[in-house]
């Protein structure tokens, strides 16, 4: 099964609401939202205020991808502002199990981004429903 999840980063922010509606009209069920803190990755992107402001504009599933240090500090806040699912990088936290447990409690499912850490992932594979592999084709 394939799920189309257009990335909010690709939007023209002068027409953000319009472009979100266009993704819905084109059949996208998910909206991918990259959250970057400028520490875990060099860029800075969106936070909770943006997600909260666009939540009423669509019924699409908000796939919130945390590229932040210590994601466990903010998981509840991202849920409160409208995230339907949260993904994170194992190497962004000292305690991946804590993050997995938080997400399980809130959503009942777990997705982890796999980036050159397959051996670390094996420890958690039983608890994970989806493993997303990022790469270039």
Short account of what is shown:
This protein has 137 residues and is an alpha/beta fold. It has helices at 16-25, 48-54, 75-81, 96-107, 118-122, and strands at 30-36, 61-67, 85-89, 111-114, 130-133. It is globular, with a radius of gyration of 15 Å.
Note down, in words, how this protein is organized.
It is a single chain. The chain has 137 residues and is an alpha/beta fold. 30% of the residues lie in helices and 20% in strands. The protein is built from 5 helices and 5 strands, in the order αβαβαβαβαβ. A 5-stranded parallel sheet has the order 1-2-3-4-5, covered by helices on one side. Strand 2, helix 3 and strand 3 form a beta-alpha-beta unit.
């Amino acid at each position: 099964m394939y799920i189309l999840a257009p990335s909010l980063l690709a939007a023209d922010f002068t027409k953000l609401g319009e472009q979100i509606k266009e993704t819905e009209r084109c059949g996208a069920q998910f909206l991918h939202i990259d959250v970057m803190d400028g520490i875990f990755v060099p860029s800075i992107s969106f936070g909770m205020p943006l997600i909260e402001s666009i939540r009423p504009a669509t019924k699409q599933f908000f796939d919130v991808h945390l590229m932040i240090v210590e994601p466990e500090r903010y998981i509840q806040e991202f849920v409160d502002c409208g995230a339907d699912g949260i993904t994170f990088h194992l190497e962004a936290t000292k305690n991946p199990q804590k993050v997995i447990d938080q997400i399980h409690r809130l959503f009942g499912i777990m997705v982890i981004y796999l980036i050159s850490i397959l051996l670390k992932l094996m420890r958690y594979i039983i608890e994970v429903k989806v493993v997303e592999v990022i790469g270039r084709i």
